[in-house]
Every structure is written in structure tokens, then in C-alpha cells.
């Protein structure tokens, strides 16, 4: 079995998903609030000045909506996506920055009060490494929340993986497929081997990437 490295994955049509997060808004039926279980701007209200980082932001539509709602409120918003097909309006707000970059290669400085990844981890290679990389950028009271389907983590038995997550300071909601961490969350003692971008559906029913560890 020939596993793909990160450079190969960035050229994959599955990873460069042209529909992922293209239409998802901030609030409503198809929204960040529904998928995350909380409204990001509401959660940030009592933590201003605050910085919110959204990984795999797609078109950035939800972030552009958020920027329009928090003008002058001391909230900085940063979005990162591999495919820089950002919606119109992203340049209208000085407190919003949309960056075209592979998530694992984006050099950002913390701290952030909130880091989100709405259905984006499905398309990444080293999912667990990415989580640890960005948890380190959180503030002391910050939170990282993202969708993770454990089916796409290969080479580690599920019960062991859940135990490792708990031991190293991560919380996992098996019903909502959400993983949450803080700045205290630690990398897992697993070595990333590579990934496959075929035969890797996730709980959304969409194609994704299987990540292999040992």
C-alpha cells in the first residue's frame, strides 16, 4: 500500500474540495453554529479583545458574515484554506484576514481564543498532528473545536485512540464527531505514516482522507 505524503495530498482532487464550506454560513440551517453546537461570536462576547482562527474555511462566507457583525468589537478573525476561492467581501473588513495556504504550512502566531475546523479535518493528512500544532496557539482560556471521524484514523484501535485522547487532554464527542482541546492538550504518542485519498468516506457521506499512524 503506497501512502501519500502531504505534498501529494495537496494535489488531490478530494483534498482540494471545491464545495467544502463554500455555502456554509455563520448562523441558520447550514451553518457553523449548527455544526459546532455553539455560535462563535456569542462564545467570544465575554472574551474580547479576542482572536478567532478558522481552519479549512472554504470560501470564507461564514467569516465574512461574522466580520460584518462584529465591527468595532475587538474581534480579529483569520481564515485559512488550501484553495483561495474566497467569497466577495473579504477585503471589506480590516479585522478579517483570509489566507490561501495548506493548513500545516501556515505560519501563524497566537494566542487565539477560539480555533475552529468545521469538517476540515476530513481532508487533512496528519489530522492528529495538526490538532496538536494549533492547540499550542490557544490562549490560556481558549478552545479548539473541530469535526473528526475516528473511522478515518487508521492503524490505532478505536478504544486505544479514545483512551489516548483523554489521557493527553482532548475531549471527544462521539455523537457529534467533535474533538475539543485547550492549550494544555498534548500531542499523542503516535507516528504519522501517510494517508490515502480514496475509499475514505466519513460520517457526512462525502469522500475524505484516511490517515495512518503507528
Automatic annotation (TrEMBL):
Q: Residues of the signal sequence?
A: none
UniProt KW keywords: Methyltransferase, Transferase
The Gene Ontology biological process annotation of the record reads: methylation
Entry's Gene Ontology molecular function annotations = methyltransferase activity
Q: Name one Pfam family in it.
A: Methyltransf_23
Enumerate the InterPro entries for this protein: SAM-dependent_MTases_sf
Top-level taxonomic group: Bacteria
Record's protein name: SAM-dependent methyltransferase
